[in-house]
Specification:
disordered C terminus; six-stranded antiparallel beta sheet; four-stranded antiparallel beta sheet; alpha+beta; elongated; 16 strands; 20% strand; 540 residues; 17 helices
């Protein structure tokens, strides 16, 4: 079969050249090095700095405000954990109970597909028995992201037109802009799973009830809660017809200001309504919070952008930056007491782009230097410029072919995966050296000296098929030696399997290109360069 493939490439020049050009252009379009070619669409490999070695887990959150950790553990965490144990593929379940909040971490086997596990969890949550959890307690599934998904952190600060900090903004104002403008804008970016807000104060209506007033009017706290709930809703009635026109009747009751709550009737004593303002004080205030965001010793408001599972982190970050530039002009602004005009500005303080670019840049430089050194070494050893160029051309094209396979095999480009290509450079050179050296040896035989046309093609064909089985065996031995790496599991497998994959892809690419090199050598050997340059002695 291999001999037939080699003969096909030798006899069909146009097909061979087209295949080679397609592989080169396709590899450039999938390369992770941010190469921009105007006429070539970009479909690059997913790029990250390090491999994601976290466990295959999903998180279920459950809120039960005002309850102690022991109540959360007994009535939510424990019954929900035991119920979720029946999900197929579950390896272990861990739970954490804090004040008013429960987190359950469901860890699946590594071979369980990520979104399949989420579907199974949702099926379980939708079929919970009515008596399993307290009334009105609803568990929810966490974002579809991994522990390595936090790719971009930022703060929201007041800045002047020159970008200098101005202050003058209340933490509640900034948090409101973050929750109802910035967060929604960034959530729309392709590949973003969630934007979590941090710091500041969430504005809410608060009622400070006077216990003495409740006792004097003989009103329970539950009556106050019920009155406030009933006063904060719209109600519908039937319709009335006036002049052959039908009108819908409804009562508008949603709370829009503090006075709306103050006038809510809690009870009636001796035909006198007892309102909320008679038994307490209503005001706007901050929601209870469990943590803050500190920047330089001062409180700040910000957010965390979490990339979706399977997305390209670098593309997500670039999309977030583009969206920030788009929504920046719409952020609130005001004139401070000192006359300075201040506008809220999004300031990043953790951006994985720099780490990714440093990692990929280092490996890009290392690969370039390796290819260049290999070319020099081959030139010195072979002492044939034309053969050296053919052998050396296998390296960059083989690397591009590796990127193609990585893109469609789902292997991310990170420091470990690209290291596999760097390790394979030496073996990739060997493939070309063996093929080309054997062809040159056959061409130097007296009976083949000056061979042209069909005779030349037959000589190259025989020289190539003579060593193809040996090269195949050598490469297969190298690939087989990586079987223990392919068999690794858990964190070790996620860390080292990409290296084994990329090295195998690079070796297979070099093997395929070695066959194409036979055609290139055949084509270049047909004509001799008439130029009497000093390098002509190295050309033949």
């Amino acid at each position: 079969m291999l001999n037939k493939i080699i003969k096909y490439f030798l006899e069909n020049r146009l097909v061979t050249v087209l295949i080679l050009m397609v592989l080169i252009l396709w590899g450039i379009s999938t390369a992770p090095f941010n190469w921009k070619i105007p006429f070539l669409p970009s479909d690059s490999v997913a790029v990250d700095a390090i491999p994601d070695i976290g466990e295959n887990q999903q998180i279920v959150f459950t809120q039960w405000p005002g309850r102690s950790p022991q109540d959360i553990e007994d009535q939510i965490s424990y019954p929900l954990t035991t119920y979720l144990l029946g999900i197929p593929g579950v390896k272990s379940i861990r739970s954490n109970s804090i004040f008013g909040f429960s987190s359950i971490y469901i860890i699946f086997d590594d071979d369980i597909e990520f979104y399949w596990s989420r579907s199974r969890i949702l099926e379980k949550l939708n079929s919970l028995p009515n008596s399993l959890l307290p009334e009105n307690v609803k568990p929810s599934l966490g974002p579809d992201a991994t522990a390595l998904g936090q790719v971009y952190w930022y703060t929201v600060e007041g800045r002047d037109k020159d970008g200098n900090p101005t202050g003058g903004w209340d933490l509640q104002e900034i948090r409101t802009a973050q929750d109802f403008y910035i967060k929604y804008g960034l959530n729309a970016v392709q590949g973003v799973s969630e934007v979590a807000s941090i710091g500041g104060f969430v504005k809410e209506y608060q009622i400070d009830v006077n216990p003495d007033a409740l006792k004097a009017y003989n009103i329970s706290l539950m009556q106050v809660m019920t009155a406030v709930q009933k006063s904060n809703k719209d109600v519908g009635a039937k319709t009335i017809e006036i002049n052959q026109a039908e009108y819908l009747v409804r009562g508008l009751g949603y709370v829009k200001k503090v006075e709306d709550i103050e006038l809510a009737v809690v009870a009636v004593k001796d035909n006198v309504p007892i309102r909320v303002k008679d038994i307490g004080v209503v005001a706007l205030g901050p929601e209870t919070r469990r943590g803050i965001l500190d920047k330089g010793g001062a409180e700040a408001v910000g957010g965390v952008v979490i990339a979706r599972y399977g997305s390209n982190p670098l593309e997500v970050i670039n999309g977030v930056k583009a969206k920030i530039s788009e929504i920046a002009s719409g952020l609130p602004k005001k004139t401070l007491a000192n006359g300075v005009e201040s506008q809220l500005t999004i300031i990043p303080f953790y951006d994985r782009t720099e780490l990714i670019q440093e990692t990929i840049g280092t490996l890009e430089t290392a690969l370039s230097h390796e290819v260049l050194i290999s070319i020099i070494v081959v030139l010195l050893l072979v002492l044939n410029l034309r053969a050296s160029l053919i052998i050396s051309s296998l390296l960059p094209v083989g690397v591009l072919m590796t990127f193609i396979v990585m893109r469609y095999a789902g292997v991310d480009a990170n420091v470990v995966a690209l290291s596999g290509i760097a390790i394979a450079i030496g073996v990739m050179v060997d493939v070309g050296v063996v093929f080309v050296e054997n062809i040159i040896r056959h061409l130097e035989m007296p009976e083949n000296h000056g061979a042209k046309g069909a005779k030349l093609m037959q000589v190259i064909y025989e020289a190539t098929t003579e060593v193809v089985s040996a090269i195949t065996t050598a490469l297969a031995t190298t690939v087989v030696s990586f079987i223990p790496v392919f068999a690794m599991e858990s964190a070790e497998g996620k860390l080292f399997r990409p290296l084994a994959f990329t090295k195998t892809f690079a070796l297979l690419g070099a093997f395929i290109l070695g066959k194409l090199a036979t055609f290139i050598l055949y084509h270049f050997t047909l004509t001799r360069c008439p130029c009497p340059c000093p390098l002509s002695c190295l050309m033949y």
